[in-house]
């Protein structure tokens, strides 16, 4: 946990009776406890976004004024970033529409965070489930941090590098099986490992990971596609 995050660890207990969702975070080296599937899914974005240094759920509660009364507010996440202002995030379900009172509430909440030197964002399930990031992140998550043996990794890198316009996932599998005698299941895992660890890549937002997707040498455009957390840069 970064020094900044440690200053904002909250003490509010999770809402009694609500189901808790645990996200196994490699970035935070701990399970992140959330209160909804949307919050748990947003962890996938935080985990894979290279601009995110670290994050915590249920940070310190703040007090904001609304209609001349003080109210408590606890964001869903506090996120420390490498190059941008740290930010608090509120996660809402799909098809969420703010009422007039909520408009006023979040306006005041944002002002408090701004005065503290932080940004504030409201993210809905519509945004989280848009495109293919979420599906792909879930498929690749368990391969982060593990790599194929050197011989296989260099073979994959060479094939992708020598293909000017990229090579399909399916063709990589076929070549691994035919030229290195790799079992099909292991070939899938080897390629997943190379993608999850950003050795090779594809537009993870635009395309769903399957045997027809074209992969290429990792570059900045892939990184931009993977960075899905709303951030004011």
Would you give an account of this structure?
The chain is an alpha+beta fold and 233 residues long. It has two domains: 3-129, Trna Endonuclease, Chain: A, domain 1 (3-Layer(aba) Sandwich), CATH 3.40.1350; 144-226, Arc Repressor Mutant, subunit A, CATH 1.10.10. 39% of the residues lie in helices and 22% in strands. The chain has nine helices and eleven strands. It has helices at 3-7, 37-48, 100-116, 125-129, 133-140, 150-162, 169-180, 184-196, 220-226, and strands at 21-25, 30-34, 52-57, 62-66, 69-73, 77-81, 87-92, 119-124, 167-168, 200-201, 214-217. A four-stranded mixed sheet has the order 3-6-7-8. Helix 2 packs across helix 5 (133-140) and helix 7 packs across helix 8 (184-196). 27% of the residues are buried. The mean pLDDT is 94.
Query: What class, by secondary structure content?
Result: alpha+beta
Unreliable spans are: none
Radius of gyration: 21 Å
Number of strands: 11
Highest-level CATH class of the largest domain: Alpha Beta
Biggest β-sheet strands, sense, barrel: 4 strands, mixed
Series of secondary-structure elements, N-terminal to C-terminal: HEEHEEEEEHEHHHEHHEEH
Order of adjacent strands in the largest pleated sheet? 3-6-7-8
Provide the CATH topology of the largest domain: Trna Endonuclease, Chain: A, domain 1
Summed over residues and divided by their number, the pLDDT gives a mean of 94
**Number of separate structural domains:** 2
Helix count, DSSP H or I runs of 4 or more residues:
9
Intertermini distance: 23 Å
Fraction of helical residues: 25-40%
Q: Tell me the CATH architecture of the largest domain.
A: 3-Layer(aba) Sandwich
Amount of beta strand: 15-25%
Label the overall shape: elongated
């Amino acid at each position: 946990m970064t020094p900044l995050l440690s200053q904002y660890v909250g003490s509010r207990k999770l809402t009694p009776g609500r189901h808790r969702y645990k996200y196994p975070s490699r970035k935070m080296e701990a399970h992140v406890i959330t209160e909804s599937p949307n919050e748990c899914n947003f962890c996938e974005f935080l985990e894979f976004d290279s601009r995110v240094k670290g994050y915590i759920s249920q940070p310190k509660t703040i007090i904001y004024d609304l209609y001349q009364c003080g109210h408590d507010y606890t964001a869903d996440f506090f996120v420390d970033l490498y190059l941008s202002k740290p930010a608090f995030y509120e996660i809402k379900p799909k098809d969420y529409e703010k009422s007039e009172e909520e408009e006023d509430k979040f306006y005041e909440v944002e002002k408090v965070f701004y005065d503290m030197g932080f940004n504030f964002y409201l993210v809905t399930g519509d945004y989280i489930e848009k495109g293919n990031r979420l599906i792909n992140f879930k498929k690749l998550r368990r391969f982060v941090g593990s790599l194929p043996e050197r011989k296989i990794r260099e073979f994959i890198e060479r094939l992708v590098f020598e293909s000017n316009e990229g090579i399909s996932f399916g063709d990589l599998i076929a070549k691994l099986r035919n030229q290195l005698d790799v079992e099909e299941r292991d070939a899938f895992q080897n390629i997943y490992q190379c993608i999850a660890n950003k050795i090779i890549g594809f537009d993870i937002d635009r395309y769903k990971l399957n045997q027809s997707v074209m992969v290429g040498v990792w570059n900045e455009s892939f990184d931009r596609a993977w960075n899905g957390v709303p951030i004011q840069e």
